[in-house]
Amino acid sequence: MESRTVRDVRLTLDHCVKCNICTTACPVAAVTPLFPGPKYVGPQAERFRLELEPMLAPEGGAPPSPDHSIDYCSGCGICSQVCPQGVKIAEINTRARAAYVGGQLPLRNQLIARPDLLGTLGTPFAPIANATLASPPLRGVIEGVLGIHAEAPLPPFAGRTFQQWARRHRRVRAAVRSVAYFHGCSTNYYEPGLGALTVQVLEHNGCRVIVPRDQTCCGLPLQSNGDFQAARAAAQRLVSTLLPYAEAGYDIVATSTSCGLMLKREYMEILGLAGPEFKTVSARMWDICEYLWHLHEQGELDTDFQPVPLTVPYHAPCQQKGHGIGKPALDLFGLIPQLRVVEMTAACCGIAGTYGLKKEKYQIAMDVGAPLFADIRAAQPDVAACDSETCRWQITHGSGVRAVHPVAVLAQAYGIADL
Amino acid sequence: MSAGYDLIVVGAGYAGLMAALTAQEAGRRTLVIATGNGGTHLRTGCIDVLGYIDGKRVDDPVRAAAQLASARPTHPYATTGVEALGVALLVFKQAMARAGYPFEGDGHTALLLPSALGAARPTALVPRTMAAGDLRRPEPIVVVGFDNFKDFYPALIAENLERGGHRARAIMLTAPGFEHEADLPPLTLARAFDRAPFRSALAAQLGPRLRSGERVAFPAVLGLTAALEALADLEKRLGAPVFEIPTLPPSIPGIRVFNAFDRLLRAAGARVQIGHPVIGFKTDGLRVTALTSQTAARDRDWACDAVVLATGGVASGGIVVDSHRVAREVVFGLPVVAAVAPPETVNGLSAPAAYFERPTPSLPGLAVDAALRPLDATGTAAYLNLYAAGALLTGAEPWREKSSEGISLASGWRAGQ
Question: Which of A55, A208, B29, B374 yields a CA-CA distance of 20 to 30 A from A375?
Answer without folding.
Answer: B29
